[in-house]
Design goal:
The complex is a heterodimer of chains A (827) and B (185). With 827 residues, chain A is of the alpha/beta class. In chain A, α4 packs across α8 (172-183) and α15 crosses α17 (354-361). Chain A starts with 12 loop residues before the first strand and ends with a strand. Chain B contains six helices and nine strands, in the order αααβββαββαβββαβ. Chain B has helices spanning 2-8, 13-17, 26-32, 89-92, 116-134, 161-174, and strands at 41-46, 55-61, 64-70, 102-104, 112-113, 135-138, 144-148, 151-154, 179-180. The radius of gyration of chain B is 24 Å and the shape is elongated. Residues 1-21 of chain B have low confidence and may be disordered. Classes of the chains: A alpha/beta (827), B alpha+beta (185). At the A-B interface, α11, α15, β10, β11 and β12 of A face β1, β2, α4, β4 and α5 of B.
């Protein structure tokens, strides 16, 4: 989230699209309700009439996978009717930048951007025009036909309400009602926000869904202001934190890039990753990149290993190759791994194409499964259609501590890092994850110290200074505060730093007060630079419980701590007029110039009024990107059909699907099946969640209070479809895709309605994904224990989902695929 | 009720004993008497489910959770919790929690209870074997890559920040490149 949960109340229009906050982030709805009480409107756009829709002023249905068509139509509406904030886009975005005249839009190039070769783009024509000095050419009048603004206008001129309605199935009057309502937030002083979730990310055009909305937010001057922003409702309590800490193949902590093989030295790595700019006024914050690299390497290997040596230890990816979730299970299925950790996760139910995932697990020599309850992953060897006597995999099930049985921090969707305390011990021998990791580290290190092995130093020289040590050099127990401090970072030597003209002295061993003080020479450490300032000489910021609210915007700057540098609304430098410094919204100013400095939230990127510094300082050119040439599938979002869809062509262009989608079905394995426009699978299907369960149900299925409320896997369908198939409410049915099937209870409701797409009637169904075959029936209990009744029934929705991903994020397309629904005994 | 719960964390025992704190405690303490949390220790936590980050007060007595409820001082949730947040009592008080390391040998049809020491030793030996067998100092182009290709990891957004940091530090020290978690799906 660019903003915070409490901030949603300042919205004049809340758009919930690709999300269902009333059901899935229930307490967030407190602030949607407040926005409504303040006179704001709620708009819900969803294939299904959800709990959020029930509270909305406007509900507009749309077919899964057609969000770009819907939003593209909104961009056209805003541009055609002059409802954008011209000053905002001129100063704060790349709207005035001039693009290479050879660049071609899909409308004039058979549905694709210029440069497509096979499944990849050569982006040469996507570049900007530059002058002799390399500065990007601009037209402040936004009239040049090659300007980003004119290209945007031209591109979305094709997205007229008639064609959009035909693609999305949204009635034209509803489309226009939504466009009109949301576009009002472009008025000065008004703000609109977007609440989105996996309904936008889990598509082969996932990134472009969000890009389309980002463009709208920029056109309407909604970025950086109270009640605005682009807000991802993240699905897990700490998925923001786990992402920040680089538990992904492509990023190290703090979004530093994982080194690739062509970056053989630290110098190469820093040079290639440190952006340069010729824009005179741009701050280009990432020019500090080498400081964060050096500090991370120090946190990994300490001051006794040179930075170059430490860099050489880091594993390097092959250039241009992905090692994503889909790759992991594809490689595993192809027998490429011997060992696998499934830590606090349940891939046998959570990943796409569960049958492929489950079969892949049988190819491993060993699997370590860490969880608080039994999972389908740990028990895969005795799952449906598995014969344990034929499965070689050694499996370790490690019991870990629940959240209230250990101490540490988590970061919510609004980047708020909050501390949790230990209330009780774990049951039996269960241990905190951190202790398990620490024990494993010591044992592996010992083996390498004794026996040696390739890449020995990478593990033996790793620092592990998290508490007082025993005689054998190991820590007595893991001091989680010591880890939190290493993440913040230390001065490793005495240092004098010039801070805006003031000399500041720091002593060796002192905690670094903020990332602006991190150094590239190895004199500082920081395990995750964006969290530098979270644990300082002033203490553990995440544990703070102050509730002062000086701005009246419920920013609560003394409650816990928010990255970066305790800023609560990022991009807030764009909340004020670029020349006068006057807030766009004088009633809810996020920052204000008091004559000498900015007051309010921690200012973001902004210099004194009139200085001319563009405030999007994480972008090399300092401005937000209406035109985004960095992506793999095009600088503007373009509508393509999902890999599996109910119609035979893209009604907008000759290009059917995203040509760059991350696919496995072409020359894939026997598990990589695709069935699009296939009469065997005529219905669109989407997965979703219910309030009472969470993810694969790995915690909630074992919690009787919750499981009893939602015991059964179900499929929700319209009255019309039920009639067509002769299905009654409550009947057992089978939902099938080309990849698998799952038993469900039919729920026949008015919440789904058939769509008219390109003149034909299209049905959509929905299934929750919280279920799995492991139940209390499989657990062993002590003699005196009353064995609990079986709480839940059914298996994973992911038995049906396709193994295909977005080209940029490689997130699978779980929100739009094709199925059939069959009554028992009736085909 | 509301006043006393709200005040609980702010007001220390000493302050409670002192007079003149501005609110009458009399009817409140009378009401609070039968509450099961009267002699309980209270700690704060943040809900482990969705990403709103709601505050929860956990009451424990004799090492057992006796109550969990919304934290009224929490600026986001202000005491509210949804069905999931309201159920975390059952994450602790639950017969179904895994409480011992378990091992399933190749081709076996049962789990076997094992000790932590044995488990850690065996996993470490497995890691070393898989790593050594699959470790690539250089790639096909002869570039230095220092990576272990035979092991993959997924997880976890269910861990604390500090644990996520430790985990990736350990995995990168091992040379893993196949490192993923919930954020990708």
């Amino acid at each position: 989230m660019t903003n915070q949960w409490n901030d949603i109340q300042f919205s004049d229009c809340v758009l919930a699209m690709g999300s269902n906050p009333a059901s899935n982030h229930p307490i967030s709805f407190k602030y949607v309700t407040k926005a409504i009480e303040r006179g704001g409107t709620l708009v819900s756009v969803d294939p299904r009439f959800t709990q959020t829709s029930a509270k909305a002023h406007i509900y507009a249905p749309l077919r899964s996978g057609t969000d770009i068509a819907f939003l593209g139509g909104m961009i056209k509406y805003i541009v055609d009717n002059g409802l954008y904030n011209e000053r905002y886009i001129k100063f704060f975005t790349n709207a005035s930048f001039l693009v290479n005249p050879d660049f071609k839009l899909p409308g004039e190039n058979n549905g694709v951007f210029s440069g497509l070769s096979g499944t990849k783009y050569d982006k040469a024509t996507w570049s900007y025009q530059t002058d002799g000095a390399g500065v990007i050419k601009k037209d402040p009048t936004l009239r040049d036909p090659n300007s980003v603004f004119q290209l945007l206008k031209k591109h979305y001129s094709r997205y007229n309400p008639d064609i959009v309605s035909e693609i999305t199935g949204t009635p034209k009057d509803k489309l226009l009602e939504v466009y009109k309502e949301y576009a009002k937030t472009g008025q000065t002083g008004k703000a609109g926000t977007i609440m989105y979730a996996m309904g936008w990310t889990q598509h082969t055009v996932g990134v472009q869904n969000i890009r389309a909305m980002s463009i709208i937010q920029l056109l309407l001057a909604n970025m950086g202001v109270a009640g605005g922003g682009v807000n991802a409702l993240r699905g897990e309590s700490n998925v923001q934190g786990s992402t920040d800490y680089g538990l992904l193949y492509n990023v190290l902590p703090g979004y530093l890039k994982t080194p690739v093989a062509s970056q053989q030295t630290l110098k190469d790595y820093n040079e290639q990753n440190t952006p340069k700019t010729k824009e005179a006024k741009s701050l280009n914050w990432w020019s500090n990149y080498p400081k964060y690299t050096a500090s991370l390497l120090r946190a990994f290997y300490g001051p006794n290993v040179t930075l170059d040596e430490a860099y050489s230890y880091l594993p390097k990816l092959d250039d241009g190759k992905a090692y994503s979730w889909l790759d992991i299970f594809d490689q595993m299925y192809k027998d490429k791994f011997t060992g696998f950790f499934s830590w606090g996760q349940n891939p046998a139910c959570s990943g796409p194409s569960s049958n492929k995932t489950r079969a892949a697990l049988t190819k491993l020599d060993w699997l370590v499964n860490v969880n608080i309850f039994d999972t389908e992953t740990g028990n895969f060897w005795r799952g449906p259609d598995m014969d344990p006597s034929k499965i070689k995999t050694e499996v370790f099930s490690l019991p870990c501590a629940a959240s209230i049985e250990k101490e540490g921090s988590i970061s919510n969707s609004g980047r708020l890092m909050q501390w949790r305390y230990k209330a009780v011990n774990s049951p039996g021998e269960a241990m905190p994850d951190g202790e398990i990791i620490s024990d494993l580290f010591y044992r592996v290190r010992e083996l390498y110290e004794k026996e040696g092995g390739p890449g020995r130093e990478a593990i033996t020289k790793l620092t592990w200074n998290y508490g007082p040590k025993r005689g054998d050099g190991k820590i007595r127990h893991l001091d989680i505060h010591a880890v939190a401090k290493e993440i913040n970072g230390y001065f490793l030597e005495d240092k004098t730093i010039d801070d805006k003209g003031v000399k500041k002295e720091f002593k060796k061993g002192q905690l670094v007060p903020a990332f602006a003080f991190l150094q590239d020479d190895g004199s500082t450490s920081s395990g995750c630079w964006i969290y530098c300032a979270s644990y300082t000489d002033a203490g553990n910021m995440a544990a703070r419980r102050g509730t002062k609210d000086a701005t009246g915007l419920e920013l609560y700057p003394e409650w816990a701590w928010s990255w970066p540098v305790n800023r609560r609304i990022i991009y807030n430098g764009a909340s004020v007029d670029p020349e006068t410094g006057k807030p766009w919204d004088v009633e809810h100013p996020v920052i204000m110039w008091d004559g000498a400095k900015w007051v309010g939230d921690v200012p973001d990127g902004v210099a004194p009024p009139g200085d001319g510094r563009p405030p999007f300082i994480m972008k090399p050119d300092g401005v937000a990107s209406i035109y985004g040439p960095g992506l793999k599938d095009g600088p503007f979002p373009e509508h393509y059909e999902p890999l599996e869809c109910p119609i035979e062509k893209n009604l907008l262009s000759p290009q059917f699907i995203n040509p760059t989608a991350y696919r496995f079905d072409v020359n894939g394995t026997d598990m990589d099946l695709r069935a699009t426009c296939d009469p065997r699978f005529p219905f669109v299907c989407s997965t979703y969640r219910v309030s009472e369960h969470w993810q694969t149900g790995v915690m909630t299925r074992w919690t009787s209070w919750l499981a009893e409320m939602q015991p059964d896997m179900f499929v929700e369908m319209s009255v019309e479809l039920a009639k067509l198939k002769g299905i009654k409410n409550g009947e057992k049915v089978t939902v099938k895709s080309v990849r698998g099937e799952v038993q469900c209870v039919a729920i026949v409701t008015d919440r789904f309605k058939p769509f008219i797409i390109g003149g034909q009637t299209i049905h959509q169904v929905g299934i929750p994904w919280h279920y799995g075959w492991v139940t209390t029936a499989m657990r062993k209990y002590a003699h005196d224990d009353k064995k609990p009744e079986v709480f839940t029934f059914g298996d994973s929705a992911n038995l049906l989902t396709p193994f295909v991903g977005d080209p940029n994020t490689m997130i699978p397309e779980s929100k739009a695929f094709m199925v059939n629904v069959e009554k028992k005994g009736v085909k | 009720m509301d006043v006393s719960r709200r005040g609980f964390l702010k007001i220390s025992g000493a302050a409670l004993a002192a007079s003149g704190i501005g609110i009458s405690l009399k009817p409140v303490s009378a009401y609070a008497q039968p509450l099961k949390i009267k002699y309980a220790k209270q700690t704060t936590t943040i809900c482990p489910y969705c990403s709103v980050g709601c505050g929860i007060i956990v009451s424990t007595q004799n090492g057992k959770v006796v109550n969990t409820e919304g934290d009224p001082d929490h600026p986001i949730s202000k005491g509210s919790l949804c069905s999931k947040g309201g159920s975390i009592y059952q994450l602790s008080v639950n017969k179904n929690r895994l409480d011992k390391p378990l091992y399933r040998a190749p081709y076996a049809s049962e789990w076997k209870e094992v000790s932590w020491e044995w488990t850690i030793e065996k996993i470490a030996a497995n890691i070393k074997k898989s790593r050594d067998e699959s470790f690539k100092i250089t790639n096909d182009k002869g570039q230095l890559v220092n990576r272990a290709m035979g092991i993959a990891s997924v997880g976890s957004a269910a861990m604390d920040n500090e644990e996520c940091y430790l985990y990736q530090k350990f995995l990168r020290g091992l040379g893993l490149v196949y490192i993923e978690h919930q954020a990708r799906i």
